[in-house]
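WARN retry 2 of 3 for item q-0093 after timeout on previous attempt; input resubmitted unchanged.
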Amino acid sequence: MTERVLIIDDEENIRHMIRLTLEAAGYEVGEAADGIEAFAILGGDSAWNVVLLDQRLPLMEGTEVLRRINVLAPSARVVMMTAFASVELAVEAMKLGANDFLRKPMTPEVVRNSIAAALRKVSDPQTEVESQIDLRNQAHSRIVTLNGFTILPESDDARALPQRPNERRFLVRKPDGREQEVVVEISEEAFREAEKRFRNATIHEGFWTSQAETFLSDFIWNDGNVPAGGKLILKGVDRDVIEKMKEEKRRHE
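OK item q-0093 returned
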């Protein structure tokens, strides 16, 4: 049976490009220019396997359209697209049930890989619906797929990876299902900057783990791939995060 993909984007040229890409790969493709048009399509026929959803749409934003899609077509996998986003917005979209988050402009390969990865996650429809509901109920979830790549949550395998004090190791699942270890090395410059900004306050291990994960997420978001050599070097710290932590500490003193 041919898988069906519905494209929701207000830019006709982008819909046309994606349609050609997916039809060449053997998918049946539908189009909608905004959420209202998409609701009419899904209301009359909810049997779409994947929905490619732009974040910036007329009338309502993509995240609001996503909430309605969860009701109209709960078994469909939703892949968000945007040229104006951040990892934080991707996290929010995942909490609402999105399966992946693509950065525009996307290459045909990225589009095909993301659709293929989304379809691989579909097994029993009822089980998939229940798992999506569970995900939306877990407000603390940080499991995010960007451009088809997923940074896996800590598992027994991840904990068993050898790790130096200045390294954080992650397992990343690629769009083809293969997993790769990625090492984020924390440089001496980053350690010194954090110590200077924290002014001798205790810097917990979790801070560096969070910094390393954010750095890796940003790399995948911007580059659309994992680092070629499987290694990144963190040379600075997120000053906004430090300021938020200092403010949080002041509130509890």
